Amino acid sequence: MSDRGRRPPALLAAALAALVLVLAACTGPSAESASPSGSGGGGSGGELDPDAPLDFAVITHGTEGDAFWSVVKSGAEAAGRDLGVSVTYSSNGDPGAQAKLIDNAVAQGKTGLVVSMANPDALKESIEAAVAAGIPVVTVNSGAARSAEFGAIAHVGQDEKIAGRAAGERLKDAGKRKVLCVIHEAGNSGLNERCDGAREGFGGDVENLQVDISNPTDIEARVRGALQTDPSIDGVLTLSSQVADRAVTAARGAGSEAEIATFDLNTDVVDAILDGRISFAVDQQQYQQGYLPITMLKLYRENGNTLGGGQSVLTGPGFVDESNADLVRPYTERGTR
């Protein structure tokens, strides 16, 4: 949480000076080479009319009604309102269908794209075609390792390996001996990175369990079955707020006292943390994954700015536990955390 206290004038002046230096760095040679009136995207694309109205499309791999992606959508739409930019949001969990949404956005003449890449290979041709058409692309949430390769100007999100490692370390510090890592989307490279990172941070036995997020009843049955089959599992790490509640119910049904932790937030997770059913949540602050890319695309189109210096702009990991859950809850209620 930010400090809302009044800063001394000297500190404020120093902060402003530092901001000026950061912005100056962002308009260096890399920004010049990606001038929106010349080559678009990563610097190898075609011409894009610099006077075209700012009309950005956000295209993710989320599913309709998904609590996580609804927050990303809220962030992008809020940025559009704040900045006077047209923003449309669409999503499809099928990689082929998501690629078609990107192709459609290019055909419609969108002047900037925000794309999540759970399955980078399936989106490669579509994203590269957007870049070739002179449309700048910012990738978000997943696919960071392939973002620059495809020609995107930046990536905004959480480093999944780092986040997983931090979660594993917390479970280790809690004295856990064996952890079940629940993967809810097959083929999502970021989720596997989370479990791999947790394995590194935990330094002990971490077992993966594949479930289907679209089948909540089966999720509960599979987690309960794993806990009943192996009573030595004393920690469960879910990778979605929507799976966390099912894991809590499954543990209770199995008669297990395994500690439940999760990635990502919603109000139900915060309430479960406050009443002790979930120990902590890894918060990647996905509202920023919607808001920041719209800001970045506007700055790029209007001032040639880029951010990140070739590295991801990280939105996490942060942690929500019993020490700060009551402070975060109002934000989850309004749909911004």
UniProtKB/TrEMBL annotation:
Secretion signal span: 1-24
InterPro entries linked: Bact_Solute-Bind_Prot2, Peripla_BP_I, SBP_2_dom
Chain positions covered by the region annotation Disordered: 31-53
Pfam families, per database record: Peripla_BP_4 (PF13407)
Sequence ranges assigned to domain Periplasmic binding protein in this UniProt record: 56-300
Gene Ontology cellular component list: outer membrane-bounded periplasmic space
GO MF terms, alphabetically ordered: carbohydrate binding
Record has NAD as a keyword: no
Subcellular location(s) of the protein: Cell envelope
Keywords: Signal
Family: Belongs to the bacterial solute-binding protein 2 family.
Protein name stated in the entry: Sugar ABC transporter substrate-binding protein
